[in-house]
Amino acid sequence: MTGPASLAGCDIAFVDDDADLREANVQALQLAGFTVAPFGAAPALLAEIDTGFGGAVVTDVRMPGMDGIELFRRLKSLDADIPVVLISGHADVAMAVDAMSEGAYDFIAKPFPGERLVETLRRAVEKRRLVVENRRLKLLAAATEEDGGLIGETPAMVRLRQMLRDLADVDVDVLVLGETGTGKEVVANQLHRLGRRRTKPFVALNCGALPENVIEGELFGFEAGAFTGAQKKRIGRIEHSSGGTLFLDELESMPLAAQVKLLRVLEGREVAPLGSNELRPVDLRVVAATKLDLGDPAQRRDFREDLYYRLNIVTLRLPPLRERRADIPLLFGHVLGRAARKFNREVPALDRAVERHLKESDWPGNVRELVHFAERVVLGLTGDLALPEPAAGGNALSLPERLGLIEADLIKEALEAHRGDVRATLEALRIPRKTFYDKLARYGISRSAFEER
Ligand SMILES: Nc1ncnc2c1ncn2[C@@H]1O[C@H](COP(=O)(O)OP(=O)(O)OP(=O)(O)O)[C@@H](O)[C@H]1O
Ligand SMILES: [Mg+2]
């Protein structure tokens, strides 16, 4: 078979005009686990292949019409990162070596043992896979960066982005539930920006940041003289957000009195400023963020159940970062770039301590903690990672392990103070000699290192 072959999903495109050789090689490669698309001539491959090809090309050098070297050059101008392996007869070795200096991946002289080709191709295909994957991530990061959207390729995040697109133009109120730093505000912004309300204001109010007596005036507005200090009338944020989006952050902290009034506004879609009986219609869309699962009576405590049900038409749950660890590398790459631009620095190469921290931390502060970590990495402030550090590692170390670190420090201090003298150190620590030596062994402490030098 000489094609037409479909290259999508193939590891290898195999080009050889000799049908017997082609078939034998294709079979051998299939046995080795590759998916292979055979081609009888170079132009047939060129007609098929594009920069999205995720595999490697193997081609015979000597072919009628376009030879393998010319094919290599054409492929190189199409996409220099496609690995091309040349198979050449004895007479063409010099030509093939030249091609290698131009960037061909490898050449193999005929006759060759099957393993030789398989090994080269394993490496070539893996290399290509990484190139394609990196390009995909870059494109993705650039695309999401542009729309300020949520980065993440785990199923939960892909689903969430789809939900945001679906919900953006539906006028239902949305509750966003997630731990600190999981991206609740990003979600609220996206709901606003992806829908037709984007041309009107996005108005945010942090219900936890304002004193109780201020919050109602801010939300509902007031007439002049409505209360002491209300000298001029003021439009409330609800009214300001009309046609756009009202983002109520830290909803769980909203004072009870304001909750009652808000419920009335949500039901009637009308607002009366404090000190006025006039009801003004509002075109309201509320997105509210909370760290507590208000559907759970234990967590809801005195938050009004009726308001909760009124707002909970749709709840979007943001998973904590530790439940979608697969997103950490992509996210980190993204926030690292952001940090570098912010501080006008180069994106640094990652050292092992940084990588280990990425792998081992539980990220209790979620994406925000990752953002701050990236800023420290860009500024070179991660020297403290060289040693296991309980504070930075969150729950990375168990309690006994942490206590062990403290105990080891205390023993070292005592040894230091008594210059390695065992009797004095034992007295200071008030532990039996055997226990003392056991602990030295466990913590890898050398007593003699503390003797006077
Ligand atoms: N999926 C994501 N992709 C890109 N950036 C993200 C993502 N999630 C969060 N961020 C970034 O992390 C930081 C924290 O996000 P955000 O302020 O939305 O969190 P939050 O859930 O509102 O936190 P809090 O409850 O503490 O207010 C921001 O800098 C935001 O841009
Ligand atoms: Mg927030």
Folded structure, characterized:
The chain is α/β, with parallel strands linked by helices. The protein has four domains: 12-136, Rossmann fold (3-Layer(aba) Sandwich); 155-319, Rossmann fold (3-Layer(aba) Sandwich), CATH 3.40.50.300; 322-396, Helicase, Ruva Protein, domain 3; 399-450. The protein has helices at 19-31, 42-48, 68-78, 93-101, 114-146, 155-168, 184-193, 212-220, 237-240, 256-268, 297-300, 305-311, 328-343, 352-360, 366-378, 390-393, 399-417, 422-429, 433-443; strands at 12-15, 36-39, 56-60, 84-88, 106-109, 174-178, 202-206, 221-222, 234-235, 245-249, 270-271, 280-281, 286-290, 314-318. It is flat and about 100 Å long. It starts with 11 loop residues before the first strand and ends in a 10-residue tail after the last helix. β4, α4 (93-101) and β5 form a beta-alpha-beta unit. A five-stranded parallel sheet has the order 2-1-3-4-5, with helices on both faces. A five-stranded parallel sheet has the order 7-10-13-6-14. The site of adenosine-5'-triphosphate has 17 residues, from α7 and α15. Adenosine-5'-triphosphate (ATP) is lined by residues 150-152, 178, 180-186, 289, 291, 331, 367-368, 371.
